[in-house]
Amino acid sequence: MMQLKLYGREYCSLCVVMREQLLAQAAGRFELEWIDIEDIDALEALYGELVPVLTDAGGKEICHYHLDLAALDARLADLG
User: Fold this and answer.
1) Contact present, 37 and 28 (Cβ < 8 Å)
2) With the C-alpha atoms ordered 8, 23, 63, 33, is the resulting torsion angle positive or negative?
3) Alpha-carbon dihedral 57, 35, 26, 19, rounded to 10 degrees
4) What is the CA radius of gyration of the chain?
5) Cross-strand partners of 64
6) How confident is residue 79, by pLDDT bands cut at 50, 70 and 90?
């Protein structure tokens, strides 16, 4: 099963919304790993202003701020 990563912060409302949307889409399509960047300096420097950021397992960005279903579907098709 394909692995996706969602970088964000627990207190970020956009992050919470995207995580909920992704979990609703995940069933049998992909596994989602949530990564809270709050206390990880390298990730904070990389993604700080962009969260939430959705990437594939290799780190290629799929979307940020809001879930882009077309971009998600296209990336899953590329990976599949």
Assistant:
1) no
2) positive
3) -140
4) 12
5) 53
6) confident
